[in-house]
Design the sequence.
């Protein structure tokens, strides 16, 4: 019985990740469009895009190897796997035992690795440029991410995501967030912007060779391969948003498997993610894209913030 | 087990002698590599048997020289290193049977094979030795044989210099190891390891600390701890590739063995916290600088040699954390840190040897080591490419590979620092973890560069265009290591209990049952509640999710066949010159970490006479400053040369003068003795 419930939970979580991620992408785009006084495409446009791409004939560069056609599946798989390791609307995740927060970070890195290789494979200068830039951004984001997560993990006494979220969900009084948490939150938010290719680090809406990072790596992709890559990017965004809302604001998440709790959990999760997506849309509209060599400063700031979070954790705890 | 040990020695000795008895290269090849491979198989069995047995095997042969006994002891720690050496040795000797064709006509295959057997034998005996004197002799033999192998192609430019550099560095190290043993000798009056282990009275604190540092410098010079790492990027690439694989994969690990032996076995009682902390700092700096210099290397084998510095750093991080926990009586965590370090030791042996063999295969096929001259090799050498990719993913510590498991364990032992009483250490260990995260990310960038530039896109040179797949024996050698990487990654439940047998006697607690939860499916440091991973399950989830993507692509795109067309080159035909280069790929990293690299750029431009907007000729040079060589080694060398110059005054070349010197020395010594 237990096994069946767990299987169902995994499948539901998988379905939620797959179906919700295009919506989040659409929502961010919509917010940006409205802030630019445009009506913007429908919230459901990304679904139509994906459906269309899956049904189109792909064109593959004749200079490529199996890495090029294999990478979309690996990137997709690693992002989905990362998403399955974390709690979404129920604080208990069946696959929790399979990997903690470090495993999640490294699974995403697996996707990044193959994305970088895919960018290099077609042999055009654009892809190489995108790969090279992705390498430096991902490199600098990682220490900040690791430290900010650690300061949260210390509070919960665990680096397992389910335990972290479950612990903080049970502590109702967490609303008054200690300074350590606020700093870790700020650091993780900056990392999110960098890792998911958002303004001010990257611009997901442009194909201008001087600025693009993620899009440059995907430049040679088409058809189902592009669909998988785009979908994976959407899921990655959703993974980061879920991570932030569930770790820093676990209110309302279902702590048991009772149907009312799950219903509330789903609804609250949906609202929280939507709210955070709107925040990202607003931020993307408010800032200009940074020069590539200013990005390290921003990520350096994130690292310092996460370090301070750790210092505060130990010193304020007494 | 005695029979196994005898068999092992016999195989290596036969492998060392037989190839010299014949002049036919074919037979020499067969004898040398056949014996080495057989010894490898025996060594694997012996290593596993040694790990599983409850009583260590000890053999001893007395000698006429005072304090020297030819004592051998196979305890779990030694057995683990015998296993590691034999695994890599087996792969390297299979590979070498095809690879030595590269040298036919230039180098004697028999001599090369004979030296290979001697080298493997000396490494195996180094970890088995149970007497300080015997250990030092073997250590010296190992160093000299590896030197001889490094200078195999001494007619090539730079090889002799690299060899000399290595020879000097390793002897500086040996001198410090001798000092360490002399300190113990002073205390115990014996060179036997048994006496070192159980001294009659504890060494005074000051001497113990000196022994700590001399051991760190002595073994550090061999293993490549920053700033003693400078010889690695010269010596490892100069050697034939299967030798590089052995040097980088296992020879530098004998120094890790030495460190564990000295710190945990000889001085295992108590150490002050700053010993562990020193190791932690050395590890962090080595890991970070190693990978940073690797990023700037465009000689594939130098790049891999720099990665060895990085991985040694990671091993030291585990060991250092273990020592710190040991100081504060947290024995389970101490065992965890040490176990993580040992796990990374065998993992690094597997994937680094694999990558070096892969680099050798590329050199075999293209006759160059320069990454910028590769490209498009995955289509020409599919198997080499696939094996190299497995090694690359492992060294970047990506799940579910073996590198991930051990790096994850190191992370955990650093994170568990919140149990320490000292606030300073509570903060320092997580910072080390953050630096390890940075190291991991840089390693990812570096292997992405190495693999991407070598195997993907179009060939950048005629060498690469005409490359073909290497002979089967070389592929078998690489395939064996690729399989080993996979097993070490997906089956931690097989590895952890064996490692636990090594760490349990050294730290006093067995943690296998705590590290492995849920029937071994889950690796969890100390408690499942704190954290856990399961690489088999992760692999299954990855395969499942990938299959889902494939299914969707199949269902939606029924009957759609991909069309092949050339890459968009902005209207021009795509040429390899349009591809990103390795230099270009690493450029942002060079710029961001300018303070460390201190790059210098030289740009010469020649303009047309009519206008300075048209460049006729342009030359661009970029170098990074070898900081340690310039500021640390250069002054020492200069000082030495200057001193030698001064001392020339007493070297008049007159025999009578020298006789006088001898006489005066003798008188002084007699006075001193009296």
Sequence:
């Amino acid at each position: 019985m237990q096994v069946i419930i767990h299987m169902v939970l995994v499948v539901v979580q998988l379905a939620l990740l797959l179906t919700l991620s295009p919506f989040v992408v659409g929502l961010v785009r919509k917010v940006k469009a409205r802030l630019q006084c445009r009506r913007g495409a429908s919230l459901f446009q990304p679904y139509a895009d994906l459906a269309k791409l899956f049904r189109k004939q792909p064109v593959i560069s004749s200079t490529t190897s199996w890495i090029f056609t294999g990478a979309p599946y690996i990137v997709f798989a690693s992002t989905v796997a990362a998403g399955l390791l974390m709690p979404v609307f129920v604080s208990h995740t069946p696959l929790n035992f399979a990997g903690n927060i470090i495993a999640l970070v490294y699974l995403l890195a697996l996707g990044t690795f193959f994305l970088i290789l895919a960018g290099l494979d077609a042999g055009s200068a654009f892809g190489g440029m995108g790969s090279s830039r992705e390498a430096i951004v991902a490199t600098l984001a990682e220490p900040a991410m690791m430290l900010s997560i650690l300061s949260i993990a210390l509070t919960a006494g665990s680096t397992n995501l389910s335990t972290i979220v479950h612990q903080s969900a049970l502590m109702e009084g967490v609303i008054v967030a200690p300074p350590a948490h606020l700093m870790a939150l700020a650091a993780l938010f900056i990392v999110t912007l960098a890792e998911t290719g958002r303004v001010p680090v990257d611009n997901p809406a442009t194909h201008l060779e001087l600025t693009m990072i993620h899009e440059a790596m995907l430049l040679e992709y088409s058809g189902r391969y592009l669909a998988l890559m785009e979908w994976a990017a959407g899921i990655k965004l959703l993974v980061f948003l879920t991570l932030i809302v569930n770790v820093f604001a676990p209110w309302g998440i279902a702590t048991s498997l009772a149907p009312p709790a799950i219903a509330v959990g789903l609804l609250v999760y949906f609202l929280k993610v939507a709210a955070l997506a709107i925040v990202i849309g607003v931020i993307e509209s408010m800032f200009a894209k940074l020069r590539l060599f200013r990005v390290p400063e921003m990520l350096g700031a994130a690292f310092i913030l996460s370090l301070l979070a750790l210092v505060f954790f130990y010193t304020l705890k007494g | 087990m005695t029979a196994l040990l005898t068999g092992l020695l016999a195989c290596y000795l036969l492998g060392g002698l037989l190839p010299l008895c014949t002049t036919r290269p074919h037979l020499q090849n067969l004898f040398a590599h056949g014996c080495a491979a057989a010894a490898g198989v025996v060594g694997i069995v012996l290593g596993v048997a040694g790990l599983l047995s409850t009583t260590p095997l000890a053999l001893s042969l007395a000698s006429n020289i005072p304090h020297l006994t030819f004592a051998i002891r196979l305890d779990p720690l030694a057995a683990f290193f015998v296993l590691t050496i034999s695994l890599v040795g087996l792969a390297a000797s299979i590979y070498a049977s095809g690879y030595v064709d590269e040298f036919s006509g230039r180098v004697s295959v028999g001599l090369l094979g004979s030296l290979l057997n001697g080298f493997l034998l000396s490494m195996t005996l180094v970890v088995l030795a149970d007497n300080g004197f015997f250990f030092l002799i073997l250590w010296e033999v190992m160093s000299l044989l590896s030197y001889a192998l490094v200078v195999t192609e001494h007619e090539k430019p730079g090889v002799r210099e690299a060899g000399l550099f290595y020879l000097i560095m390793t002897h500086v190290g040996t001198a410090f190891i001798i000092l360490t043993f002399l300190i113990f000798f002073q205390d115990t009056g014996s060179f036997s390891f048994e006496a070192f282990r159980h001294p009659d009275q504890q060494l005074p604190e000051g001497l113990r600390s000196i022994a700590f540092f001399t051991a760190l410098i002595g073994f550090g010079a061999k293993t490549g701890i920053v700033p003693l790492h400078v010889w690695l990027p010269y010596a490892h690439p100069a050697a034939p590739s299967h030798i590089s694989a052995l040097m980088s994969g296992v020879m530098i690990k004998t120094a890790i063995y030495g460190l564990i032996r000295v710190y945990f076995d000889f001085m295992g009682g108590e150490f002050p916290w700053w010993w562990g902390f020193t190791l932690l700092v050395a590890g962090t700096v080595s890991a970070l600088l190693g990978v940073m210099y690797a990023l700037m290397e465009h000689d594939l084998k130098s790049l891999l040699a720099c990665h060895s510095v990085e991985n040694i750093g990671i091993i030291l991080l585990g060991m250092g954390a273990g020592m710190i926990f040991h100081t504060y009586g947290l024995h389970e965590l101490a065992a965890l840190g040490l176990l993580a370090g040992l796990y990374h030791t065998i993992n690094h042996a597997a994937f680094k040897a694999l990558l070096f063999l892969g680099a050798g295969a590329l050199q075999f096929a293209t006759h160059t080591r320069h990454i910028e001259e590769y490209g498009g090799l995955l289509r020409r050498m599919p198997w080499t490419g696939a094996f190299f990719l497995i090694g690359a993913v492992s060294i970047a510590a990506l799940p579910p590979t073996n590198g991930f498991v051990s790096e994850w364990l190191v992370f955990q032992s650093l994170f568990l620092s919140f149990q320490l009483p000292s606030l300073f250490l509570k903060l320092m260990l997580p910072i080390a973890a953050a630096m390890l995260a940075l190291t991991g990310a840089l390693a990812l960038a570096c292997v992405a560069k190495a693999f991407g530039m070598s195997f993907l896109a179009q060939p950048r040179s005629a060498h690469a265009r005409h490359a073909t797949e290497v002979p089967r024996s070389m592929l078998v050698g690489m395939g064996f290591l690729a399989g080993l990487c996979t097993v070490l990654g997906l089956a931690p439940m097989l590895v952890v209990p064996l490692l636990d047998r090594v760490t349990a006697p050294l730290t006093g607690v067995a943690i296998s049952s705590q590290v492995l939860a849920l029937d071994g499916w889950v690796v969890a440091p100390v408690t499942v509640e704190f954290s856990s991973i399961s690489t088999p399950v992760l692999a299954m989830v990855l395969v499942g999710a990938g299959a889902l993507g494939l299914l969707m692509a199949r269902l939606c795109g029924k009957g759609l066949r991909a069309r092949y067309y050339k890459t968009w080159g902005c209207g021009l035909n795509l040429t390899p010159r349009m591809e990103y280069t390795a230099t270009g790929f690493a450029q942002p990293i060079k710029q961001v970490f300018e303070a460390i690299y201190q790059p210098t750029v030289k740009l010469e431009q020649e303009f047309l006479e009519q206008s300075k907007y048209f460049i006729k000729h342009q030359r661009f040079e970029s170098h990074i400053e070898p900081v340690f060589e310039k500021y640390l080694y250069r002054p020492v060398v200069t000082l030495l040369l200057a001193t030698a110059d001064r001392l020339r005054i007493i070297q008049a070349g007159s025999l009578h003068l020298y006789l006088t010197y001898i006489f005066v020395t003798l008188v002084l010594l007699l006075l001193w003795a009296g």
Notes: Chain B has a mean pLDDT of 92. DSSP finds 26 helices and seven strands in chain B. The beta strands of chain B are 57-59, 72-74, 516-517, 522-523, 563-565, 600-607, 615-623.
